[in-house]
Amino acid sequence: MKKKHFEGRHLVEYFMKTIMRISLVFVAGALGLILWTIISRGIPSLTWDMITQVPKGGYYMGKEGGILNAIIGSAYLATGGTLLAILLSLPIALYLKAYIGDSKWGEYVRLSLDVLWGIPSIVYGAFGFALMIAFGVRASLLAGIIVLALVELPIMTRAMDEVIRRMPADLEHAALALGSTKFEVALRVVTRQMLPGIVTAILLAFGRGIGDAASVLFTAGYTDRIPTSLMRPTASLPLAVFFQLGSPYPEVRERGYAAALILTIIVLAVSFGARWLSGRLNRYTVK
Amino acid sequence: MDTHIQAKDLNAFYGKQQALKNVNIEIPKNQITVIMGPSGCGKTTLLKTFNRFFELTEGTQLTGEVLVDGQNIYDPDVDVTEVRKVVGLLAQRPSPLPMSIYDNVSYGMHIHKLKKNRAEYKTAVRHYLEIAGLWDEVQIRLHDPATSLSIGQQQRLCLARGLAVEPEIILGDEPTSALDPISSQHIEKRLLDLKQQYTTVIVTHTLRQAKRLADYVIYMYLGEVVEAGPAHEVFNNPQHKQTRAYLEGQI
Hints:
The structure holds two protein chains of two kinds. By secondary structure, chain A is an all-alpha fold. Chain A folds into two domains: about 10-45; about 50-285, MetI-like fold, CATH 1.10.3720. Helices cover about 75% and strands about 0% of the residues of chain A. Chain A is globular, with a radius of gyration of 23 Å. By secondary structure, chain B is of the alpha/beta class. Chain B is globular. The model of chain B has no long low-confidence stretch (mean pLDDT about 90). The interface between A and B is medium-sized, with 22 and 29 residues.
């Protein structure tokens, strides 16, 4: 009855476990390395001025100023894009659940969303840019928000869909038995039950939106000013990272890492905030 | 006998499998009707045809009519939400909605817009919780999640919630089978108290419960109604060999 560690099935198990552990180390290591790089290189340049000032005259040659323009710009872009995406995603996800279900049409919709998910964001940017030219619109906050919403739409909808599909049938039937319409079930019961998961889906999309450089490159443009109107161009953090890292001045390149660090901190803060929020929203859900 | 629900030539299919075979029955108003029979005899299926829950299962098909107050509820003009407002359901296992105790009861009243203002809703919530015998236990925690209640309390909450939409008929699909004996007693007592005002149809697989509750009995076997009649007649003097065998515990 003794364990034979190096025979047959036990050997296979041992082997597989080792592989899993190695990949875990790789993943955790990569994350650690990324964080280490942006923290160690970003911290020295992360001054108070960085987050409270817009670029001054000589900023791009290493003189004073900061990237408040990009921080505010990204906040506007990602928040606007995410809100717009919610307005489209939630109804699609609820419609899929309430009326289409797992039918053939449902599968087509899901396939389309998956394809959209896979399209690189530069393509969305180019698409938005082509439309803007056709309509004679300049790079602006509004254009950036719309294109970001398109980038976020498939990931948000599919994430919501996966959550909402797990809705317990008992609960749905309980609401139907009281004479609810399918819409009332979707709005008053499904959304409430699945709120924590829906918040996670929104967050996932927000994370993709705020970190995306390619889609806002042509559509939102870049400017040293804080945007005051939807029709004006705006800076964004990913592009701030991109432009500064490409600079010949070492000080500016270091500031690129600081910008990356700020972006990471924002994403982490939003993640933890949403975790905390969905913990609170859990109160009424039926387990 | 004053008929409230009537099934006419009812046939129900899950795919190719026939679950109800030519069912013709009449269910009396303001009495407790118990549908009994061995597992898989179609009793739950029959119950589900009364509030149009049968069609929620994919690949099902139904022929025939179910009349509630003389109106065929399968008529294309009939609004299914109205049917389910009139015909309430107490499910096998309580499933509270993901909201507070208070909101669980007021939910149905809200969607049907039964009350005019907040004060009326408040009074009504209390009223139905009292009828369900739950008020004393929950009055200080109305805004706690409904899931914080015990299973037995949840089932009484589901009863209050169902009554709050002002139905005429209560269907019970083995409503006590998931509950402990004390909680089952509670539910049975409520159903007996309410039978003057509501037509109640209960599916049960326990003969003793059937005997405690029934005014009228339907005995089913293999998708067919074998025997139906007033409880004392069916229990004391069953007409069919089948029914007798079941009552004697042979099936």
